[in-house]
Amino acid sequence: MLKWFVTFVGSHFGKPRGLVGIVLARMMNIVNHKLHNAILNNIQLEENNAVLEIGFGNGYLIHKIFRKKIPISMCGIDISADMLKVATARNRKHIRNNCLTLLKENIAQTSFADNTFDRIITINTIYYWSDLPGCFAEIKRLLKPGGLFLNVLFTKEFLDTMFFTKYGFRKSSIAEIISQTQENGLKLIAAIEIEKNKSYCIVAGKEL
User: Of 26, 47, 170, 200, which residue is 20 to 30 A from 125 by alpha carbon distance?
Assistant: First the structure.
């Protein structure tokens, strides 16, 4: 029974769905505020940038990015149909204004053309990537030369302290994530410690 419960809760973090998923997504907006700020403080947005968020959840970070009042276009992908509905409702104005597109897709294989985005961002999704090299290769393909990829995540040590990460989570050290980033053709720019021994923002770029 305990394993079932832990697996059930953990699965909703990877793919929020139904009422449980909606509630957990709202909770994560609060818990992850420092991770959101790491994106906002390091994304280096420029006018007319094209931005992709991998795993947009309930669309909270997208809403915060548009509050910067910088004219950009955004796309978001998520594997949860329920989160697509919630995020669409939250960001309906930006969708109507043709500056936001939300899709149910997986970063392992997307429908976008090569060199589409100036910025690609993601928070706490890498634990669910079944094929790390393939996902990093897709990110490199989508990123424009000179573009930035911001990957925000919790450390393996911190994840090990949380009961719901026992099943269904791929846990890697920060060093391993940096190595995977570089091995798949992206240049490490910075590994920013957000909270000591707890979370990082890994900034990588695609060379010109």
Answer: 47
- What is the domain range of residue 43? 2-205
Domains of the chain: total: 1
Helix then strand then coil, in percent of the chain rounded to 5, is: 45, 25, 30
Q: pTM, whole model, 2 decimals? A: 0.88
Q: What is the pLDDT of residues 86-121, one digit of tens each?
A: 999 999 999 999 999 999 999 999 999 999 999 999
Query: Is the CA virtual torsion 68, 69, 71, 72 positive or negative?
Result: positive
| Sign of the dihedral through C-alpha 86, 124, 170, 5 | negative
Q: 201 forms bridges with which residues in the sheet? A: 152, 192
The CATH number of residue 141's host domain is 3.40.50.150
118 secondary structure, DSSP code: E
Return the number of other C-beta atoms located less than 10 Å from residue 28's C-beta. Answer: 19
